[in-house]
Write a structure and sequence with these properties.
12 helices, 13 strands, 380 residues, seven-stranded mixed beta sheet, pyridoxal phosphate, single chain, PyrdxlP-dep_Trfase_small, binds pyridoxal-5'-phosphate, globular, PyrdxlP-dep_Trfase, transaminase activity, pyridoxal phosphate binding, Aspartate Aminotransferase, domain 2, three-stranded antiparallel beta sheet, alpha/beta, Aspartate Aminotransferase, domain 1
């Protein structure tokens, strides 16, 4: 059986978790602090704040920006549902725009067209690890006085070329970037998230909000020779990462360059193997380098998506359908007038994601390609 994804964890992470367990400090503590420092250095961000997952990261990002009832936030429907949910958590209204004609990312022109006097922020997703057009989005956000949040859940290790230089996703170019360490992503802590920003005031708000609005965290009180009474400055949350997770994350960070290089090799090989099959294959714009968190192919019009996926599963190959559309799910299917989301719907209905993980062999990939080819021929 070839799974859709497989995290790469070994004795190094197991020993790190072991040491954290025996250290006597298992909630947010010195490991979280070190993980934040190392992640910030890796993406070139002045500030990185670890949280319990990327959904809580996105929630805190919008909270820290004071997004609330009456506000509109422009984003894609074509994303994991957490992207849209975080807007609703704040009582604001998600305004969905379609993806571009090439690839699976938000269309900056449609963002510009969707701006109203109520628009407060844009949440732009680097879908499946492929950077979205940040240069265009930053300009639109600046012109409109809007905040730009990057949903970089899938994009640790992806790069973008702006102003002639390659830089990692997460510096960030927007105001805030949010990462996920769920096992489906390129590096994992089981559950986990990270928020990066260049703005020290935002970073301070993330740190308060993730921990009940507490002025002096337990780590500070624990280390203090004098008695400290903490204050609670705002309605916060408990969105902490544990030191056990952070210890695992530090091990994963060391692997990130190697994991991304490996995934790029695998994606390039898929490109060669699948070229003769008449599929729509994913490609990088000249200014983007994906970490290939997922490899998404578009099926020819005449074949049945579910049938292809079922027959591949029968042949021992797990796949997933194209990225979901939030506006088709109960919480967002409210019949409200919305922009044309035809490209998003087509991508969900016509695409499948193929297995991709670092441990995959060339034989595994050949097996995937053969299973897909056999099924396409059958349906042709
Ligand atoms: C996975 C994912 C999330 C949610 O991440 P969690 O860490 O599981 O909360 C949000 N947005 C996108 C685009 C994702 O792929």
């Amino acid at each position: 059986m070839i799974p859709i994804a497989l995290p790469l964890l070994d004795e190094a992470e197991a020993e790190a978790a072991h040491a954290a367990v025996l250290s006597g400090w298992v909630s947010q503590g010195p490991q979280v602090e070190a993980f934040e420092r190392e992640f910030a250095a890796l993406v070139g961000a002045p500030h990185a704040c670890a949280v319990s997952n990327c959904t809580s990261a996105l929630h805190l990002a919008l909270k820290a920006l004071d997004v609330g009832p009456g506000d509109e936030v422009i984003t894609v429907s074509h994303s994991f549902i957490a992207t849209a949910n975080c807007i609703r958590y704040c009582g604001a209204r998600p305004v969905f725009v379609d993806i571009g004609a090439e690839g699976y990312n938000i269309d900056p022109e449609r963002v510009a067209a969707a701006i109203t006097p109520r628009t407060r922020a844009i949440v732009a997703v680097h879908q499946m690890g492929m950077p979205c057009d940040l240069a265009a989005l930053v300009e639109i956000a600046d012109r409109g006085g809007l905040a730009l949040v990057e949903d970089a859940a899938c994009a640790a290790g992806s790069q973008i070329n702006i102003d002639g230089d390659w830089e990692p996703i997460g510096r960030p170019r927007g105001d805030i970037a949010c990462f996920s360490f769920h096992p489906r992503k390129v590096i994992t802590t089981g559950e986990g998230g990270m928020i990066t920003t260049r703005d020290p005031a935002l970073d301070r708000r993330f740190r308060l909000l993730r921990q009940h609005g507490m002025s002096a965290p337990d780590t500070v009180r624990h280390a203090s020779p004098t008695v400290i009474f903490e204050d609670y400055l705002m309605v916060g949350f408990n969105y902490r990462m544990t030191d056990i997770q952070a210890a695992i994350g530090r091990g994963q960070l060391k692997r990130l360059p190697e994991l991304v290089a490996r995934r790029r090799t695998l994606a390039a090989r898929y490109g060669e193997m699948l070229a003769p099959l008449g599929l729509g294959l994913p490609g990088e714009p000249a200014w983007a380098r994906s970490n290939w968190q997922s490899y998404c192919v578009r099926l020819p019009d005449e074949v049945d998506q579910r049938e292809v996926m079922q027959r591949m599963l029968d042949r021992g190959v797990a796949t997933r359908r194209g990225i979901m559309c939030a506006h088709r799910e109960a919480p967002f299917a409210n019949g409200a007038a919305r922009a044309d989301l035809r490209l998003s719907e087509r991508a969900q209905d016509r695409c499948i994601l193929l297995p991709l993980y670092a441990q995959m062999s060339e034989d595994d990939q050949r097996h995937v390609a053969a299973a897909l080819k056999a099924e396409l021929r059958l349906q042709a």
